[in-house]
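Mods, move this if it's the wrong board.
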Amino acid sequence: MKYRMKLWTSISAAALIAASSAVAGMASPSAGEGAGNGSHGDALQGKQASGSFLVASAGEGEGEGEGGEGGEGGEGGEGGVDPAAAAKDPAVYLSAIDIIRAHYLAGEAMLDVEGGRREGGAMFAHPISEVYIDLESVFEAQGAAPFMDEMTQAVDLALGDAPVAEVKASVQKVYAALDAAAEKAPESDKSEAAIEAALAAEMYDRAAKQYDTAVGPNGSTEAWIDGYGFWKVAKMRADALKPSLGEEHESLAEELAKAEELFGTAYAGVEKPEEAPVEPGTLLAASSRISLKTSSF
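Not the wrong board. Structure tokens:
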């Protein structure tokens, strides 16, 4: 209950309504016909009138969001993070940060698209209810400063009349908070390379699944934007990992290089194209090979 009140007081009602409308507009007409396709739009069917996207999502119960949201490894590449696991496992802890970062990278890219501010603001809002609320106590226990205020400010500015430069400046504050929180990850006997490998594999998996959802029969623009963000974070993780890969993991380095080209072609931009540039099965196969190779760490 305290988080419902916190969300209401942190983000203006107008911003909440705009976020709800933006996400509903991104969903395909048939998006509400079946739960489990990983679309935020599903969770909003019938809720737009209340203008309470974040509150509705936050109140659904830990790990049990609608439309495939909430539970770890949700369908369509979405899904939350288990707080208990995040408190002990640095890879799980950092995956929560990566999910938030992916949404902000995608939302920031939408700010440069004509008419994309509402979708950008919705992207900034999603991880507050999907990830941050459940993980705030974990971040604090690890010594990381809370950063909900930075996130809600980005939502308000994006969905208001603030200049784009001001919105982007607020997004940079979120990135800085994420970087600071990442420094507080739990200790582990896992090597840094092993953690980076696990994170790269997860983000590629999420990007591939969101692409599959986006270009499917009931696909949505929203799933595409989500996937674009996951791809950007996957590339960041892969770039950090590759310098540490020796001859022992040469095959993984090759798969990462192939994936960079393949996913870069698939997600050439944050705007969903009329036709899929790459068959979704190709991306799913590539992400599966990366997962297999990273399991050797």
